[in-house]
Amino acid sequence: MEIREVLEEKPWEEFLLRRQHAPFLQSWSWGEFQDKVGNSHHRLGIYEGNKLIGICLALVGRRRLGSFVYVPHGPVLESFDKGQAKMVLAHLKDFAAKVGADYLRIEPPWSPDEDKTELLSAAGFHKATAATAQGGSGVTWLLDLAFSEEELLMGMRKTTRYLVRKAQELGLEVSRTSDPQFMMEFNRLMGLTYQRQGFVPHSRHYLQTQFETLALKRIAEVSFAKYKGDLLAAAINFSYGDTVSYVHGASLRSDVPASYLLQWENIKEAKKDGFRYFDFCGISPIDNPKHPWYGYSLFKKGFGGYPVEYVGVWDYPLKSKYWAVAGVEHVRKFIRRV
Q1: Per-residue pLDDT tens over the stretch 273-289
Q2: Domain regions of the chain by residue span
Q3: Second-level CATH architecture of 2-134+310-332
């Protein structure tokens, strides 16, 4: 087995898109986007002879408190093999040391089985308190679109179904576009949302660059729900492989249930476009009304579906500076980022 850089997009994407529920965070386009926001990217391929059997998009960047190598939702292996996983982890540790990073962070798309957590612990990694790419908990909420629209409606929580129908009766207008100029409206609504809810948002530059890069690849799309001409809710979805993912959302406080209809229309469009799954992304790991993510987790779960749990975020410290990073993240772990 050999690990070397992948220089062409086609074999990378062909490998990734063969997978069910392929992670857009390991896509070729995600690397291009990260480069534009200041994180260099390295596309590592795991080969058995000339056959590509795994990939690993590794991002190299710097935060205020230190430098890092980050592997979002990776490495991705054709099939989990303990020997292959150990070799990839060892390679990533050497790579992080060579680029002078303070720490290595990985977030494998692996189930949280005991053998996988033991493998990570034995390699010197420890479970991090950082928010994950799935939204903070390592648990995502997935809806199977193989069912009919009527079955999907009946699979909703009763209250969610009522609010969807109420919004339909009120005559809300829902539209969607991949035109980056409409991000101005989304960012305005996002600003009002974080002021009301108190979460930590991505910067406008980050969101704009992300959308512009991924919209060109027909991955990113923004949708809006308006009532009597007023914008009440918006969402950014990513379409990749067999999955549409709800990545960013914003809304105004209102008696009109615009977010419910917007989400339902996005689900229906994903089904019409031939996608198999709708991924609501991160939810609370526990069903506790006191948990800071309980509200938006309840909203997502109301549309039906099931949880998919991953092994979560794991860190490998390389320098003592890392512990300052870990301390700050521990304090901030209950501040929501969407």
Answers
A1: 999 999 999 887 667 67
A2: 2-134+310-332, 139-309
A3: 3-Layer(aba) Sandwich (3.40)
Which region, left, alpha or beta, applies to residue 92 given φ > 0 means left and ψ of -120 to 50 means alpha? alpha
- pTM attached to this predicted model: 0.91
DSSP state, residue 79: S
Quote the radius of gyration of the chain (alpha carbons, Å). 20
How is residue 179 written in tokens? Answer: 């035109």
Q: Where are the beta strands (DSSP E) in the chain?
A: 2-5, 40-48, 51-63, 66-71, 76-77, 103-106, 126-127, 139-144, 173-177, 220-227, 230-240, 243-251, 277-282, 306-309, 314-317
Helix (H) or strand (E) holding 324: helix 322-332
Q: Is 27 helix (H, G, I), strand (E, B) or coil?
A: coil
pLDDT tens digits, 88-112: 999 999 999 999 999 999 999 999 9
Torsion angle, alpha carbons of 25, 27, 33, 38, to 10: 70
Q: Does domain 139-309 fall into CATH 3.40.630.30? A: yes
Cβ proximity of 74 and 108 under 8 Å: yes
Q: 315 in helix, strand or coil? A: strand
Q: Residues 6 or more apart from 236 whose CB is under 8 A from it?
A: 186, 207, 211, 220, 221, 222, 223, 247, 248, 249
